[in-house]
Amino acid sequence: MKAELTPQQIDQYRRQGFLVIEDFLDSRELDHWRSVTDDAVQLRLKEPTLNNQVTPDSFYAMVFTQCLRLADIYPDMAELMFDERLGKLAATLAGVDGIRIWHDQALYKPPYGNHTAFHLDNPFWSFYSPGAISIWVALDAATQANGCLWYLPGTQLEASYQSVGIAENFGDIFKTYPQWKKIEAVPAACPAGSAVFHSGLVAHAAGVNATAHPRRAMTCAYMPDGSTFNGQKNVLPDEYFNSLKIGDVLDNNTINRLIWQRDGKHRTAGVEQATASAKTI
Fold first, then answer.
1. What is the pLDDT of residues 15-45, one digit of tens each?
2. Residue 151 in domain
3. How far is 21 from 191, CA to CA, in rounded Å?
4. Count of domains in the chain?
5. What is the pLDDT of residue 267?
6. What is the DSSP string of 154-189?
7. Alpha-carbon distance 182 to 174, whole Å?
8. Which range (161-175, 198-212, 247-261) has the least confidence?
9. CA–CA gap between residue 258 and residue 192 (Å, rounded)
10. Residue in 33, 72, 125, 57 with CA at minimum distance from that of residue 278
11. Per-residue pLDDT tens for 56-97?
12. What is the model's pLDDT at position 258?
């Protein structure tokens, strides 16, 4: 894994709101990520929740097969997601001293799958932070033909936390941010094994998959340590959600694992404890 960042990469991320790192995983690591993700997706699809395939012929089910919180149910995925190197990369790009997992999710765009309209991530989540960040790991090559990500660079610098939704219309975001329509979208096409980091406030989309092959990705959203509850449920478990008041610090280490902290104190928890607790949520 490419676990070091250059000053130029950090600057690019903070200016544009996204960063592509090619050859992030070597061939052995890529094979392992593919195998673990495929297995975890099959487990999640056997359950009635935390996947979007209840009505498989709907527009959004045909955007991608979405399976969330796979680290909760599959210890091998927990081992991948709780890697402190990922946390350090995310925290360094976001400029924060500690990072927690918000949630992981697999996104498998099917052959001839639908587009994902331009949207922002962080307004959907249960916290608001300019340091919200995600990693998107290409398990297959992401191309303009099969629906790679597209970004409106720099939009994270002026975006608000107002939710614009994810509509079927590709450009509905411009009703809220009409000035962004003048920005040239940038594709993030990349080979398999690449990683794309992006801000939770940068506008991004994905095209249709105009090929006969799936386009698989494994992703994880991160929350700066110390973030507080904004009143939205999103993917929080019912019992935990019902216990929260607006302004409470989201520091439950089972639900939102602290995977990297600048002073290193998080290491006392250990990945072993995390994987042992998989399937408890």
1. 999 999 999 999 999 999 999 999 999 999 9
2. yes
3. 10
4. 1
5. 55
6. TGGGT--S------SSTTTHHHH-GGGGGSPPEE--
7. 10
8. 161-175
9. 28
10. 72
11. 999 999 999 999 999 999 999 999 999 999 999 999 999 999
12. 98
* pLDDT, tens digit, 9 for 90 and up, residues 226-238: 999 999 999 999 9
Within a domain: 52? yes
CB 209 within 8 A of CB 146: yes
What residue type is 276 in one-letter code? A
**280 within domain boundaries:** no
Work out the pLDDT band at 265, boundaries 50, 70, 90: confident
Strands (E), the chain: 18-21, 65-68, 98-109, 116-119, 133-138, 149-152, 186-187, 195-199, 203-206, 215-224, 258-261
Give the CATH number of the domain where residue 43 resides: 2.60.120.620
Checking if the pLDDT of 131 tops 80, the result is: yes
One-letter amino acid for residue 104 of the chain: D
* pLDDT above 70 (res 268): no
Contact 278, 271 (CB under 8 A): no
Neighbours of 107 (CB within 10 A): 22
Side chain identity at 85, as an amino acid letter? R
CB atoms within 10 A of CB 175: 11
The residue range of the domain holding 17 is: 7-273
CA dist 263 → 88, 113, 132, 227, 268 (Å): 11, 44, 20, 18, 12
Q: Is residue 93 part of a domain?
A: yes
